[in-house]
Amino acid sequence: MPALRGSLTYARFFVSGELPEDFRQRLMRAIRLRAIQPLTPEDEDLERTGFCRIGDPYAIELGYDDVFWNEYVNLGVRTDRWVYPGSAVRARMREGEQVYKQKTGRDKMGRREKAELKELVMRRMRKQMSPAVSAIDFSWALNEGVVRFFSHGDKAAARMLDLFHRAFGSMSLSLVPEAPYTLADRLGLSKAERSAWDELEPSLAEPDVDDREEGEEA
Amino acid sequence: MDLADRIELRRFVGREHLLWLWFETELFEGNLRTSKHGSFAMWVEGRMVLSMGRERTTIRGSLPGAHREAKEAVRRGKLPEAVGFRLDRGELPASFVLKGDSLALSGLSLPEPPKEETPAIEVLADAPRPKRRGKAKDDADAADADYDAFYERMRRTRDVEEVLEALYADFLALRLAAPWRASVWPAIERWIDGQDVDASGYRAIRSRATKR
Predict the structure, then answer these.
(1) Cβ-nearest to B72 among A74, A203, A215
(2) By CA distance, what is A177's nearest residue in B?
């Protein structure tokens, strides 16, 4: 639980849009609606992301006190995903290929048949295993208009952004990732500074190729 | 220029910000100042990663910026990608790594305040007889501890962020104005080359530019 313990590694996202007047009720409804529905072998989805309680990926019945910590909305962004052990898939594929060859009397399987077999193998494996569950802390400081998401991973951020959009997009709320420009904009740029920003060039000149090769590290 | 270009084509500004922070921490021997926060101690510590394209130099140590390889890497065109800092400002110290491209923090370490020690004899004398505690009470205590820990950590995180934002605002005041090309960048180049930099002259330029 990086938000609660240990050192903090996080990315900031700035919330764009105004909170509606009855935002606590509306946020709570949207969050409950987007609480994770655990992935089951019967589902068509291979991956699913939804909210859970912060610090407890298996707590998915979300109450008001679980979510609202004074001026913070604290949640976990949980992702369920099927992760197949490569060696087990290969072994079952080999078995399947043998059966196919015996039944059809053919030496080789076509590309489409192999894909169908792989799909069948994975579907069967899903019934014998559990999806991988991971959760990342998410803390929305309502009075700052900032979300702190406790991961630097691009994929994790993309999943969280998609979930945020599905949950709160109807309230015209969106997230802008922190970057040198977005922070500058938030701090306030004058008109002259904004046009200077558009004209910026790197200060450090590219070194001559000869110089670089001469000083190359071993 | 559209928003995506302003973000993606100008990410190098974050790396230049790290270079400028490194320059200031060395030039002012770790004594930095912002108009909002007054003076405080900040220095490069732990780790520094410099890169240009696929070429990368990683330096670890108590003072990675002081390593010869660090400025040598800048002379070869590399800019800081991630720099570890220590910030000592009044209450408690904080250490963290700041990333240039995203300005995101990693490994932000906020040591807990030392607990006041009570002599063992007083603890024993005042201790009530142990009672059986219900699970619900234990859970409630644990939840309260989580809330308290969280608010305290967020308060201190916000403190660190505010100092960094103030420094970034000062950097922008210089970077987006005429003194950058005329005075600030030449001073940084001299520093990279190991030449003397007029700290008081630079401070005067900085003060004028950041007085907004």
Answers:
(1) A215
(2) B102
Residue of B nearest to A183 (CA): B165
The CA distances from residue B190 to A167, A194, B87, B198, in Å, are: 52, 29, 26, 10
**Tokens encoding B151:** 């608010």
Do A40 and A47 contact (CB within 8 A), yes or no?
no
Report d(CA A16, CA A24) in Å as an integer.
17
Query: Which of A1, A4, A7 is most worth mutating to test chain B (most B CB atoms within 10 A of its CB)?
Result: A7
What ipTM does this complex have? Answer: 0.86
Q: What is the pLDDT along chain A (218 residues), one digit of tens a residue?
A: 578 889 999 999 999 999 998 999 999 999 999 999 999 998 888 999 999 999 999 999 999 999 999 999 999 999 999 998 899 889 999 998 888 888 888 888 888 988 999 988 988 999 989 999 999 999 999 999 999 999 999 999 999 999 999 999 999 999 999 999 999 999 999 999 999 999 999 998 766 655 554 444 43
Query: CA B15, B17, B18, B22 torsion: positive or negative?
Result: positive
The amino acid at B139:
D
Q: Where along chain A do its domains lie? A: 11-83+134-198, 86-126
Residues 6+ apart with CB under 8 A from B156: B91, B92, B94, B110
Sequence-ordered alpha helix ranges (H) in A22-104:
23-33, 64-67, 86-104
Give the Å distances, CA to CA, from A154 to A157, A162, B20.
5, 12, 27
A200 contact residues in B (CB cutoff 8 A): 10, 13, 175-176
Q: How many residues does chain A have?
A: 218
